[in-house]
Each structure stands twice: as C-alpha cells, then as structure tokens.
Design brief:
Blueprint (H helix, E strand, L loop, with lengths): L2 H6 L12 H26 L14 H24 L6 H18 L5 H19 L6 H32 L4 H6 L6 H18 L7 H4 L6 H9 L4 H8 L1 H4 L3 H23 L4 H21 L3 H22 L17 H21 L9 H22 L5 H29 L14 H19 L1 H4 L1 H10 L12 H4 L2
Length: about 500
C-alpha cells in the first residue's frame, strides 16, 4: 500500500473487484471517444471529411484538436485510476466525476451559444472542485475544494459578464455571431470584454495572483491532480483562443495579456525552485507554464499557445502519474552547477542557432520588428534553460554536457515547431488566431525580463538572496487551512 493510500485510509474501504464494473465501463467508453476523436482529427487535417455540427454546436479545427488531446489524457487517467482508486469506497463517484468532466470539456469547445458556453465553463469548474475535495474525511480537502470553488465562481462570473457585454452590443447569442459582428462593439466595450476574458482565463489557469487555489489543491487524488494540471488549467488558453478576435482588437489589450503571462511564467519558475515536495514543485511549474501559454496569446500566436498546452498536458500528466503518491518533503536541493566558460559559450551559440532553426521551421524568417521576434527569443531562452536544468541534475562530465546541450535544444525546438505548424494548419478556419503586433515598450520589457531572469536563474541569485528567497517562499505557500499537518501517514511505509 502506498503512502497516499494510507493517509486516505480513513475514508476508504476495500471494494470487491466486481464492484469496478462502472469504472471499467467508463474507461472503455473514453477510449472509444478517443478513437473517434483521433479519426475526426485525421480526416479534418487531411481535408478528407469536414463534419457539420447541428446548432447550437460547431466543429472546427480547435474542436478537433482539443477533443483529441482531452480524450487521450482522460483515457490515461481513467486507466491509471482502475488500480489507484480500486480500494476507495467512493470509486464510482470518482469515476462519474472524471467521466462527466471529460464530456463537459468536449462540450465546452464545441458549443456555439454564449449561455451554453458559460454553463459548460461552470460545470467543468464545479466538477474539478469536487475532485479536489474527493477525500471527505480530510478537513483540508474540504477547505481546498471550498477555496477552489470560490476562485472558479469568480472566473465564471467574469466570463459571463464578458459574454453579456458582447451579446448586448452585437445582439447575437452565438459565439460565431458575436465574432462576426465585432464592429458593433464600441472601444470601451472591447476593453471591458477583453479585461473580463483575461481575468477569467487567469483565474482558471492559476496565473499570479490567483495561483493559491492551485498550490492548495494537493489534497486531490493523484489521478485528479493529473487531470487538473494536464487539462483543466489549459482552459484559459482555450478561452483566449476561442475569443482571439476580441482580444486582438486593441494592441494595448494584447500587451496587457503578454505582460500578465510573462510575469506568471517568470514567477512560477522561481516558485518551483523553493518548493520542498514533489507536488509543490509541479504546482509551481504549472503556474510558470500557464503563464508562458498566456504570453503566447498576448504575442498574437494563439496556435503556439495551443501547441504549448498540448505538450505541457502530456508532460505534466506523465510527471504526476509517474510520481504516484510520493510526497517526500525536505530541504530544496540545489542542482549541480552548470557554470564554466565553455558551457556559457556553447549556450550562446546554441541559443543563436536555435533561434534560426525555429524561425526557419515555423516560416518566421522575416526581420520585421514585431512580436514574432519576441516569440522566438522567449521560446529559445525557455528551451535553453530547461535543457541546462536537465543537464545540471545529471552526473555527466562537463565535456559531455557541452556536447549534449545543442542536441537537446535542437530536438526540443524541432518538435515544438512541428507541432506548432500542425496546430496552425488546424486553426486556419478560426478568425484572429494569427495576430502578431508591432513591438511596444511592454514587449521590450518582457524581453529584458526574460534575459535577466535567465542569467539570474543560471547564477542562482534567487536562492542566494535571503530576502528574495523568503518572499518567494511566502508566495509559494498554499492556504493554511489546506495543509496536512499530520505527516505520520506519509512517513509510514
């Protein structure tokens, strides 16, 4: 029995194998949904068949892509949970919620009615809050669910108000109708709707200063955490992409979206470095990655944001499910030093070459001073830092690291560029999803912040400064009422 199961044991009782009929049925159905979604994705991409959805639904490239990734991740979680949750006396209730969550998310990306969209958003949120509080015998789990529910209700309120503003001025109750009549929106209404959409996305995707609900949600069973970090938080990127024509109407709004995303990306990366447990580190990582996703939306590359959320979803699901119930606590460990003149020179050359490769593969070789250049800089710096972090945690000799770094960076950038091109093709039929803008002072500040942050992280400034370390630790704390104070169950093997 693993440590997590022992802590849950107060609420869980052994369940006979033949009582798993419902979970097994749901698992089978989800994999059937994935098979159908994969077929639809393939036929849509090749142009062999373009399904027509009846009102009030729509089927486009975004629907096809999200259906494919959601059903795949859900199938993995369903299958994993057959073993992980089999001794939980509320296993059927757990499966009802994760299966319903899958159907609601599929509905969210397919509905073409503002009221149904808001209703699906709310249903998705309440199901996730319920999963966070699955272990009812834990007061901490109940408090975590309440906290998440408050954030999610605020997100739904912001979204509903934004949709009401667009409906009021366009007179259309369909999302496609709203997007087709944006000329009817006065400038003030554009700013109001955009600000509310951004707020809804930030709340749902746990961007700063709304990241507390995510860091406080570690009471959720591991499969639910995987579904949350790999799928639920991505809703912010999906929302901004679906309403890209509204967001991209004003360059000021786009700059604000980019700044909000960049700040959370940098802060989340530093929060991860001061966490002392596995799930805490994964939570900080999610804040950073969601910030990066929103940053890409703010730069006008919504296809890049969708590609990012897919890669992040697959990677984060793997991390949560492979870590299982391990919640080892201790002093944060410093990675092995990766300094040295030769490695620094290799990093600079790799960054320059990586930027060229990414620009060529994505067709962005233009020298125009716009957000395309900033996207390339951010992607390369982020990939370079990730590669050096991986090498820093290994026991490889410096000479091997120098030889390996360019290989890792080029493989990662090539994979990202290929997926980006695929998503761009799939989203060709969506309006406003390719909207690069001219560079503004905000964009230049973002570029400088990423460069400084890269140097700071490499030099370890964020851990050497006691004041900064304490500030980051305070921001990384979950809500006190959601913290498990009795660690005995985790320590018993």
């Amino acid at each position: 029995m693993n440590s997590h199961d022992q802590v849950e044991g107060v609420d869980d009782q052994d369940t006979p194998e033949d009582d798993l009929t419902l979970p097994q049925t749901f698992t089978y159905v989800v994999w059937l949904l994935f098979s159908a979604s994969a077929l639809l994705l393939a036929t849509t991409f090749t142009g062999v068949y373009q399904p027509e959805a009846p009102q009030p639904f729509t089927f486009d490239g975004l629907t096809a892509v999200i259906w494919g990734i959601v059903t795949f991740l859900s199938g993995i979680v369903h299958s994993y949970s057959l073993r992980y949750m089999k001794s939980n006396r509320r296993v059927e209730a757990f499966y009802v919620r994760i299966f319903a969550f899958t159907l609601v998310v599929m509905s969210l990306v397919a509905v073409d009615h503002v009221a149904l969209f808001a209703a699906a958003w709310l249903a998705m949120s309440m199901l996730m809050a319920s999963l966070i509080g699955h272990v009812r015998s834990w007061s901490q789990a109940r408090e975590a669910a309440k906290l998440a529910r408050r954030y999610f209700l605020a997100s739904t309120a912001a979204l509903t108000t934004a949709l009401a503003v667009t409906w009021w001025y366009t007179g259309s109750t369909s999302i496609s109708g709203v997007l087709a009549n944006l000329d009817a929106l006065p400038r003030n209404a554009v700013f109001a709707a955009s600000a509310l959409l951004l707020l809804a996305a930030m709340l749902q995707s746990a961007l700063y200063p709304f990241h507390t609900w995510l860091l406080s949600s570690m009471t959720a069973p591991t499969p639910a955490s995987a579904l949350m970090h790999a799928g639920f938080v991505n809703a912010g990127g999906i929302l901004l992409t679906r309403f890209a024509p509204v967001i991209s109407l004003e360059i000021t709004v786009m700059s604000a979206v980019a700044v909000a995303g960049a700040f959370s990306a940098l802060l989340g990366q530093m929060l991860m470095s001061v966490q002392a447990d596995v799930k805490g580190k994964l939570g900080g990582s999610t804040v950073a990655q969601m910030g990066f996703m929103v940053l890409q939306c703010g730069l006008g590359f919504f296809s890049a944001a969708i590609a990012h959320l897919i890669l992040h979803g697959l990677y984060k699901a793997y991390l949560f499910l492979s870590n299982g119930a391990a919640v080892h606590r201790g002093k944060p460990k410093e990675p092995r030093k990766t300094s040295g003149p030769l490695l620094l020179a290799t990093s600079l050359v790799t960054a320059a070459a990586g930027g060229v490769v990414f620009a060529v593969l994505t067709g962005k070789t233009t020298l125009a001073l716009n957000t395309r250049m900033l996207l390339i800089v951010v992607v390369v710096l982020t990939t370079l830092h990730a590669a050096r972090d991986v090498l820093g945690r290994s026991n490889l000799y410096m000479s091997v690291r120098v030889a390996t770094l360019p290989v890792l960076v080029m493989i990662a950038l090539t994979a990202y560029a290929v997926l980006f091109n695929f998503i761009s093709t799939m989203l060709n039929d969506l309006p406003g999803t390719y909207a690069p803008t001219e560079l503004t002072p905000a964009h230049l500040a973002i570029a400088l912040a990423f460069a400084v942050a890269y140097v700071a992280m490499e030099a370890g400034w964020h851990t050497r400064s006691r004041r900064l370390y304490v500030a980051l630790t305070n921001q990384a704390h979950p809500n006190a009422a959601t913290v498990l104070t009795d660690r005995g169950g985790y320590d018993d093997e």
